[in-house]
Amino acid sequence: MAARIQAAPKPVSQADPATDTEPGSDAGAEAPAGGAARRQRRTQLERREEAGRRILECAMALVSTKGVAGTTLNEAGELAGYSRGLPAHHFGSKEGLLIALVEYIEAGFREARVSADPWEEGIEAVLGVVSLYIERTVAQDRATRALNILFTEGFISGGPLADALDRFNRNSLAHLEGQIRIGMDKGQIREDVDPAAEALVILGALRGISVQFLLGTPSADPERVRESLLRTVDLALRPEA
């Protein structure tokens, strides 16, 4: 049974973040001059960005527990603590929301990769990505689950959502391929390796293992799965001793 989703705490301000005025301000009044006006504009932008983030986080929760069909713009707005119509104001349509969610998940993965322990470029970075992906999957990471569901929807619906997922996929492959090429230049990786092919094999293995753990808990120990995949990738890429 799907886990019950807890509503996000309501924003401190109950004003609609899509408006251009601060709470309690007179929309027809002359805007403050100089630094005060700049501070107000920054605050408005921050409020809009915060609203967008909250809606995307709630959309991710909905997709990961109820699927794409069970996710609505209205519920995403209400769950985030805003008006039912605000998601449409931000994203235009449900498809627009889902495309933004793909981009939001990609940014989150990229941030997680950057904030992880610094890996030396080359084979260490490749192995670091492998390890990080498996760890997030085993932890039932909500973004990873939502992404897999979005991939399924993209296969079915095609169109702009599929295009956004294709961009996500190509960016992931490009990162792995780039690190493999760096490893080859450093002599860490065999000269006869095909970087594009290896990147596809690695990403395919990660996605396949991800689905296994997200569907349930396989009998295999997660740590041993991680170690086995790391060893497999390392042996496939390293020059023979």
UniProtKB/TrEMBL annotation:
Pfam hit, one: TetR_N
Record's keyword terms, sorted: DNA-binding, Repressor, Transcription, Transcription regulation
Annotated stretches, region: Disordered: 1-48
Domain of life where this protein originates: Bacteria
Domain HTH tetR-type: 49-109
UniProt cross-references to InterPro entries, sorted A to Z: BetI_C, Homeodomain-like_sf, HTH-type_TetR-like_transc_reg, HTH_TetR, Tet_transcr_reg_TetR-rel_C_sf
Residue ranges crossing the lipid bilayer per the database entry: none
Compositionally biased spans, kind Low complexity: 24-37
DNA-binding region: 72-91
Name under which the protein is recorded: HTH tetR-type domain-containing protein
